[in-house]
Structures are given as C-alpha cells and as structure tokens.
Design goal:
The structure is a single chain. This protein is elongated. The chain has about 140 residues and is mainly alpha-helical. The chain has a domain of about 90 residues. It has a two-stranded antiparallel sheet. It is built from six helices and two strands, in the order βααβαααα. Helices cover about 65% and strands about 5% of the residues.
Amino acid sequence: MELSKKINIPQNILLNFKKRLNFFKGSKKSKGYVTLLNLFKNKYVTLANLKKIKNTIDNSSDESVNLLLKDEEFVNWYEKILKRRSERIQTNKENKERAGLDNPYRKSHEKTSFVHSEAIERKIKVFINENIYNKVKNYGLF
C-alpha cells in the first residue's frame, strides 16, 4: 500500500510551522513540539504519519499539541490528502467489483475459504494436454 509514500508539505504550511516553533515558550520535549520540529526538518510526511498526527490532534488534551499542530491551514490540507487517498482506494475496489472480481474488499494477504473450480479445471486440462503432448512427442510425431 502507499502508507510509506512521501507527501511534500506545502511551503506556506512550512512557514507557519517555523513561526509557531519560534514563538513557542513551552517545553521543547512536548509531543507537539517534537512532531512539528520533525515535520519542519523533513519537509515531507508519510501517509501513515499523517494518520497518526490526525489521531493525535483529535484525541490529545495536551495544550502544546493544540497550540502547535491545530493550524487551520494544516488541518484542511491533511484532511484533503486523507480524503483523496481514501476515495482512491474506494474507487479502486469499486472498479474491481465492476470488473467481476470475487471479493475486492478482501485484503490481498487474506486466504480465501473456497476453491475456484474453474482454476482447477484449467490446471487439469493443462496437465492432460502436457501428458498427451509428451506421449505424442515420444512416438516421434513431432
């Protein structure tokens, strides 16, 4: 999946991060400060980290997190990114369903609980055809 794909942070948001870091008077070891400093240094974020940051902002009662990370521009930007990614995944699954795949909502690493009879029939036909071919080849017809 694309959870590790790097997403560049827009320049205007990085400038807001810099202003917030410069004017912050709290602890330099707080979660909000460390997160913001890492975002500012890297200038990119992965989708997995973006989800973690969103969860932190939504569920944290720490004032430093709210003060540093709850920037309206930043919140709008990451919500737009996450919405676009989830819509892309949903569209992909809907396309697979329209194409006639059995269960597009099943994760790729999950095992199926049933056996496709068509696939078995194809394997048997190939096996029989190879055996017949080998016998004919042994008789010198090819």
